[in-house]
Amino acid sequence: MDAPMEPGDLERELSELQRSTRMRQSVDGFARAALEGFGWAVLAGVCGKLVWDSAQLPFFFYPMALLDLLLLWDGVRAYSRARADLRREVEELRRLREVRAALGIDPKAAVSQ
Fold first, then answer.
1. pLDDT in tens, 16-66
2. How many CB atoms lie within 10 A of CB 6?
């Protein structure tokens, strides 16, 4: 367990945690991943239909397939970054509750949940 901190240190940490937890970046990352996943699925369907129905692939198939792969790659990257952001945000919020309880702002029972 950490050594007890001075009230001044706790107040500085509280203001820093409040500033850092104000914006939830993981929400934007998950939204980006969802939109790119939807775009990937639609474009993959179009590419699959072109392959299925065409005797010879049209010239615009290859740029579409490349765009589809880029959407998939960036969607997976955005999702993994959003998961990392979410883990960090959850930890910061847990610490924020602990600091607020240590300063007497919130009751101690709120921290144990």
1. 877 877 888 899 999 999 999 999 999 999 999 999 999 999 999 999 999
2. 8
Q: Quote helix, strand, coil % in the chain, to nearest 5.
A: 80, 0, 20
The answer to whether the CB of 11 falls within 8 A of the CB of 103 is yes
Domain with 80 in it: 25-106
pTM value? Answer: 0.76
φ and ψ of 79, to 5 deg: -65, -45
Q: Is the distance from CB of 78 to CB of 29 less than 8 angstroms?
A: yes
Residue 11 maps to a domain:
no
Does 82 map to a domain?
yes
